[in-house]
Every structure is written in structure tokens, then in C-alpha cells.
Specification:
CATH superfamily: Ribonuclease H-like superfamily/Ribonuclease H
Number of domains: 1
CATH class: Alpha Beta
Shape: globular
Distance between the termini: 31 Å
CATH architecture: 2-Layer Sandwich
Largest sheet: 5 strands, mixed
Strand content: 15-25%
Helix content: 25-40%
Structural class: alpha/beta
């Protein structure tokens, strides 16, 4: 996508998923519209509302890539992340007609956490209070995507 998307829906998938909706303008930078932690049904409702309101020309769906490994396979419910990501892919196909890499942008957890630590989230003013940290991880994925794919770096301006 050549043009910076104005809107972004981000998800840290799991049994309890983190979700954020972000908006960017050149004048105000990255702004948090909403963030929460919720069930697959709540993520689906928010994702569907987002997809109905926006077009792929000015919006993106970004999610944490989840791979079942020996370590993640030991978690209580590793399959929930895959279910949530599959639901997002289906909703993107249903509303935008996009499949595979055209639809949902996947990013690794460690990439986003390394580039977007808590001070960056606070600096850009999109901190999420409460919960287990999943909503903050969703916010991280949005800031990471804006910075790496779209060269929006206002989150790091004057950060010491």
C-alpha cells in the first residue's frame, strides 16, 4: 500500500484478545480511537464494524502472527490465537474481498515489543490502562506497522 492508511485495526489474538483502532493524520500523528481486551465474539463485532466503515485504500487490519511451537503448544489454549486470526481473515474476505497477504498484515510479537516499548506508547499518547497487557500489545502492533511500513515516526520524536 503506497499511501499511509488513515485507519488501522490491530489485534493481539488469544483466548482474551487485545484490540485497538488507530487513526493517523499528518497534523496530529497516531491517535488511539479505541482499545480493549475481549472475547473472540467481541473482536469479531469490532472488526466487522471497522471493515464496513472503511475501505482497504485507507485502512489496514494488522494482527500478531502466532505459530504453534513446542513452547506455545504448552500454553492453556494456543489454538485461540489461530481461531481469532482465521476469523479476521474471513471477515476481511467477506467485506473487502481480499485474501491471504492482501488482507491481514501479520507481524511477530518480538518485533513490535522491541521497537515499541512502553515509553513509546506513552509518548505518543495511546496508553491502555487495565487488563492483562493484550490491548497494549495490539497498540504496539499498530505503531510498529505505521513506523516500519509507512515511515510514520512521530512516536519517537524527542524521545530520550
Amino acid at each position: 500500500m503506497a499511501e499511509t492508511p488513515w485507519w488501522m485495526f490491530t489485534c493481539d489474538p488469544g483466548l482474551v484478545s487485545g484490540v485497538s483502532v488507530l487513526h493517523w493524520t499528518a497534523e496530529s500523528g497516531v491517535e488511539k480511537v479505541d482499545s480493549f481486551e475481549g472475547s473472540m465474539a467481541e473482536v469479531g463485532e469490532m472488526a466487522e464494524a471497522f471493515l464496513v466503515l472503511h475501505t482497504p485504500e485507507h485502512a489496514e487490519i494488522v494482527a500478531e502472527r502466532f505459530v504453534i511451537t513446542t513452547r506455545t503448544g504448552e500454553l492453556a489454549s494456543p489454538d485461540w490465537s489461530l481461531k481469532v486470526n482465521g476469523m479476521l481473515e474471513w471477515l476481511v474476505w467477506k467485506h473487502w474481498g481480499l485474501v491471504d497477504a492482501e488482507g491481514v498484515v501479520y507481524q511477530g510479537a518480538s518485533e513490535a515489543k522491541r521497537l515499541v516499548p512502553n515509553p513509546v506508547l506513552r509518548r505518543v499518547g495511546i496508553w491502555h490502562k487495565g487488563g492483562a497487557g493484550h490491548a497494549r500489545d495490539a497498540l504496539r502492533h499498530g505503531v510498529y506497522r505505521y513506523a516500519t511500513a509507512h515511515k510514520v515516526t512521530d512516536a519517537w520524536a524527542d524521545l530520550e
